[in-house]
């Protein structure tokens, strides 16, 4: 019995052929121009990233963000904001993977589940640096061509457009209220 005798068909389609997720915590060292007395605030802004497939089972995300730390110095008599650009490279292992792909033409989508944000900001105990602990999380999907095999039901229903009857019967036509619109306009 051949492939076609069994009523199967192969469909070539684009589909999600790989998925992965990664949560990362980092500690970044910020170098202010003055010895800090206390931390007054910390913000993470301007997050940029791009994602590319690396090898058979990994997506590499290269990104950066700005860390802004507002701190006091000179025995809490003056304040300043220090900004540093932080670069990172996350490798996301694909936990779901389709090995039946047809070519190496992939699209990679990375979605931020958790934007980089500050968990803790403190003054280092042994020098005048500031330590900023951050977190971020990504979900990645790899889209590519794959082959799907489906069974065709030889007795399945194949409808025709003529099977649908959209004409009004005489009884339905009699039930139409010709003054419907006129009544609504008067109200």
Topology of this structure?
Blueprint: E1 8-30, E2 36-54, E3 58-73, E4 78-93, E5 96-97, E6 107-123, E7 130-151, H1 170-174, H2 180-186
Antiparallel strand pairs: 1-5, 1-7, 2-3, 3-4, 6-7
Provide an overview of this structure.
The protein is mainly beta and 187 residues long. A hairpin with a 3-residue loop joins strand 2 and strand 3. The radius of gyration is 31 Å and the shape is elongated.
Features:
mainly beta; single chain; elongated; four-stranded antiparallel beta sheet; three-stranded antiparallel beta sheet; 187 residues
User: What level of helicity do the residues show?
Assistant: under 10%
**Beta-strand segment tally:** 7
Strand order of the largest sheet: 5-1-7-6
Mean pLDDT: 87
How much strand content do the residues show?
Answer: over 45%
Largest sheet: 4 strands, antiparallel
Q: H/E series, N to C?
A: EEEEEEEHH
How many helix segments?
A: 2
General form: elongated
Alpha-carbon distance between the two ends: 72 Å
Oligomer: single chain
Spatial extent as radius of gyration: 31 Å
In terms of structural class, how would the helical and strand content be classed?
mainly beta
Low-pLDDT sequence parts: none
């Amino acid at each position: 019995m051949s492939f076609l005798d069994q009523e199967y068909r192969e469909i070539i389609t684009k589909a999600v052929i790989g998925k992965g997720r990664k949560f990362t915590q980092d500690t970044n060292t910020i170098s202010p121009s003055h010895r800090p007395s206390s931390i007054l605030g910390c913000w993470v802004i301007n997050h940029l990233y791009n994602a590319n497939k690396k090898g058979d089972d990994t997506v590499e995300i290269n990104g950066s963000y700005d860390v802004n730390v507002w701190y006091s110095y000179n025995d809490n008599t003056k304040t300043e904001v220090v900004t540093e650009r932080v670069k990172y490279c996350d490798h996301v292992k694909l936990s779901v993977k389709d090995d039946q792909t047809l070519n190496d033409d992939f699209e990679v989508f990375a979605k931020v589940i958790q934007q980089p944000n500050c968990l803790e900001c403190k003054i280092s105990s042994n020098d005048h640096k500031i330590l900023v602990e951050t977190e971020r999380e990504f979900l990645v999907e790899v889209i590519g061509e794959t082959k799907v095999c489906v069974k065709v039901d030889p007795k399945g229903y194949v409808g025709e457009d003529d099977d649908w009857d959209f004409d009004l019967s005489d009884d339905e036509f009699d039930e139409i209220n010709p003054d419907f619109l006129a009544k609504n306009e008067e109200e």
